[in-house]
Each structure stands twice: as C-alpha cells, then as structure tokens.
Amino acid sequence: MAWVTEHTDPNTWLWLTWVFSRGTKEQIRIFCCTLWVIWSSRNQMLHERKNSSERDLAIKVQSYLGELEVVRERKLTTTTGRSEHREEELWESIQFDAAFDTNNSRSASGMVARGQNGEIAVSKSTLHSNVSSPFVAEALACFEATRLGIRLGFNSVTIMGDSKK
C-alpha cells in the first residue's frame, strides 16, 4: 500500500480522488478499511484515552477485511429453495457511529443503510448541539438510525452501532 503516499497533494479531496483513480478494487477495499480503523482508533484515543499499537491496527484491518469476505461469500451462496424467509430481511441493515466533541458539547452521527442485496441504499450524517456526554452522542446516533430505517420502510432492520462505548 506504499503507492498511496507517492502522490502528496495538500488538498485532501484531490489526494483521495487520485488514490481512488489509481487503485484496483482490492487496493481500494484495503485502503478504505485502513482509513476506517485509523479513524476509529483516533476516536478511541480522543474520547476514551485508549491507544492502539500499529500491530493492533493491522490486526483490526485484517479482521475487518475477513468479515467483509465472509459477507461477500454469504451473499454469493444464498439459497432460494426455501420460501418461508424473505431474502431482503437478511440484508437490510443500518450501521452507525457517533463522534463527540467534549469541549463544545457537540456530536456528529453517521449512518449507512444497506438494502436487500447489501447495496448502499442511503447514507446520512447529522450534527447535534448541546450534547452532554459520549453516551448521549451514541444514543442520538442510534435514534437517527432507527428513524432512517422507519423512513426507508425496512420490514426487518438490524441496527449495528459501536458497542464499545
């Protein structure tokens, strides 16, 4: 993945555009997972004072990539022989997370809703003010995710948040 540092543009958007235009699908998958793990680690360091080693981060990236592969395989091997379950119920999910700014009592919620085939149906972010704690920030994110699922009319929804906070 050293190639991502070959082009150093001070404009983050231009740099990300360059990375996404040059990488293969697999390289982009690894890059995105790595960014997610780094961002999550940063949030844990800021909000929970929990530091992770480089080795811990690498293991998390490998684990997350493994989880994505399991989902991909499960998607490829779904059966259609049974009529008692509906395929879309297996894949309707909303993933969410929150970031909390202690100094300004603000938070941000981000969520991604996936439809019946695992495709992204919608993504949304919301800013909140007058937030008293990280717990309230997570609760607001969960509330927003639930409202999103209701608005989308999902019949059965699995909501996955950050259970570590």
From TrEMBL:
According to the entry, every stretch annotated as the RNase H type-1 domain falls at 96-165
Q: State the Pfam families in the record.
A: RVT_3
Supply the InterPro entries for this chain.
Answer: RNase_H-like_EbsB-rel, RNaseH-like_sf, RNaseH_domain, RNaseH_sf
Q: Which domain of life is it from?
A: Eukaryota
Q: Which Gene3D superfamilies match?
A: Ribonuclease H-like superfamily/Ribonuclease H (3.30.420.10)
Which GO MF term does the entry hold, naming one? RNA-DNA hybrid ribonuclease activity
This protein is called RNase H type-1 domain-containing protein
